[in-house]
Design a protein that fits this description.
single chain; two-stranded antiparallel ribbon; 239 residues; 10 helices; globular
């Protein structure tokens, strides 16, 4: 099953009414406003991010039946959804920041529904990083990613002792902020790809969105992401 189908199966409650998560005109309006600046999440918690990912990528993803609980760094500090969404939304024109902040907060809710669907511990940081990588990859490639491949990337990250050690050294609040921002941006990007497939964006706006995804991945990987692939064994990146 592709991740798009999993997201479409998720319903969230807003103002007491059940609706498809972020589908339709509201998200498309946000995408139409997207300029050339990357929609980014802070990466300083994982400095040096590229070296940590190199270590993780050197290990194939464990099998689907691998235990998750003992491997998953958990962000259990108090939520700061509004603050983290506002920080990311500040990259948009001022008139659109409030709407974007709400959209990002809902994106986190969608991600947490995916956590539950996949049987991951709530507030699983490796899963949030996987969402950031997979969501941006989907936009950059204009392609779907299978649920199984998304899960494999998360397992690949969890299996990295260096990554777990680095995450474990962060303050609880820093780890929580990182978790929320990674999940927000990654899920937003996956939803953006879904919306573009349903109702294509104008060519210039789609180009901006893909430039944003490419810039996010370059920031994370510190290399050209064009040779990045995601499949059943997780994520690989060319030289």
């Amino acid at each position: 099953m592709a991740i798009q189908r999993s997201i479409r199966s998720i319903r969230i409650t807003t103002g007491g009414a059940m609706k498809a998560a972020l589908a339709g005109a509201a998200l498309l309006a946000m995408l139409a406003m997207l300029g050339g600046a990357p929609l980014t999440a802070r990466a300083q918690v994982l400095e040096p991010f590229p070296e940590l990912l190199d270590e993780a990528l050197g290990r194939p993803a464990p099998g689907a039946g691998a235990a998750v609980g003992s491997q998953a760094p958990i962000a259990n500090a108090p939520p700061r959804v509004e603050q983290n969404a506002r920080e990311i939304a500040q990259r948009f024109p001022k008139a659109q920041q409030a709407a974007m902040q709400s959209t990002l907060a809902q994106s986190l809710e969608v991600y947490q529904k995916l956590e539950a669907k996949f049987g991951w511990p709530r507030n699983d940081v490796a899963g949030a990083v996987a969402a950031f990588l997979v969501g941006n990859y989907m936009v950059m490639k204009g392609a779907q990613v299978a649920d199984e491949d998304f899960v494999a990337v998360a397992q690949q990250l969890r299996a990295s002792p260096q990554l777990r050690s680095t995450l474990g050294r962060q303050s609880p609040q820093a780890l929580r902020d990182f978790y929320e921002q990674q999940a927000m941006v990654g899920t937003f990007m996956a939803l953006a790809q879904m919306s573009n497939e349903k109702q294509p964006l104008p060519a210039d706006r789609l180009a901006n969105l893909r430039d944003s995804a490419r810039a996010n991945l370059r920031m994370a990987l510190k290399r050209d992401p064009s040779q990045m692939t995601i499949g059943p064994a997780g994520m690989t990146v060319g030289p």
